[in-house]
Design goal:
The chain is mainly alpha-helical. The chain has six helices and two strands. It has a single domain, classed as Orthogonal Bundle (Arc Repressor Mutant, subunit A). The model has no long low-confidence stretch (mean pLDDT 93).
Length: 113
Amino acid sequence: MKASNYTKIWQTVQAIPPGKVASYGQIADFAGLPGRARLVGKALGMVPDDMQLPWYRVLRANGQIAFPSGSKGAEEQKGKLQEEGVVVLNNRVRLQDFGWRPDLAELLFTLKF
């Protein structure tokens, strides 16, 4: 069961378009796992090496990068987001400007579970 939950999470993260971000809780909700934001974090830590997943588009609910400020992970995430045109100030992204807000049709046609 755990593996299928991870697959749902990975498919949902894969659907986040370039230049947009989503919160851990939002990914859990869209994956059909409401209230399981921590599971999203765990799933992102278990991504197979050969899978190209835009993990860096997932942030805390307040738009903050989850890695400690100045850490290698935070700097990598910040760099990848900035390459896509996402503005990161003080390790935070303004969700009003860059938050992913898919409509129902996008969710239905993008997510395959």
